[in-house]
Amino acid sequence: MQNRLQVASGFDENGVAGLVPGRIVHVFEIVEVEDGEGELAVQEYIERNSRKHNAHSSIYRARRRVNPVTYEELRDVVDMWVEAALKLSEPDLRKMARLTAAQDRRLAAALAPYAIAAE
Question: pTM of this prediction?
């Protein structure tokens, strides 16, 4: 069985197309690809949809204008997450630590070929 990578693509909060780590991306398509084909799938997607950038960017700007998030709503959401974080138990924290360690191991394994090539 081969691993599959799900590539989520869209526009970030500034209307920039693509996948940007650490940025909020509004997902409008998910594509499954085989191992090693992720970069090619992203490049093909960008080529197919580059002419639509202006339309998609305008749609997202209009959506934010018509349905903005108020400061009060943002504070409410932050308060909810803080409340949830403060209720975490020791077993919850241990489980989260195990999950992040597993993610770190998977990321290191995925980046290992690039580290060797850079040397």
Answer: 0.40
How far is Cα 117 from Cα 95, in angstroms, rounded to an integer?
34
Cα–Cα distance measured from residue 79 to residue 10, given in angstroms and rounded to the nearest whole number: 28
| pLDDT tens-place string over residues 62-97 | 988 888 888 899 899 999 999 999 999 999 999 999
Q: What is the C-alpha to C-alpha distance for residues 43 and 72, in angstroms, rounded to an integer? A: 39
Per the CB < 8 A criterion, the answer to whether 30 and 38 are in contact is: no
Quick check: helix, strand or coil at residue 26?
strand
Distance, C-alpha 63 to centroid of its chain: 20
Residue 51: partners with Cβ closer than 8 Å, 6 or more residues away: none
Contact criterion met (CB below 8 Å) for 30 and 6: yes
Beta pairing partners, 8 = 30
For residue 9, give every residue at least 6 positions away whose Cβ sits within 8 Å of its Cβ, in sequence order, or none.
17, 18, 19, 25, 27, 28, 29, 31, 42, 45, 46
Euclidean distance between CA atoms 3 and 111, whole angstroms: 16
CA pair distance 79, 93, nearest whole angstrom: 20
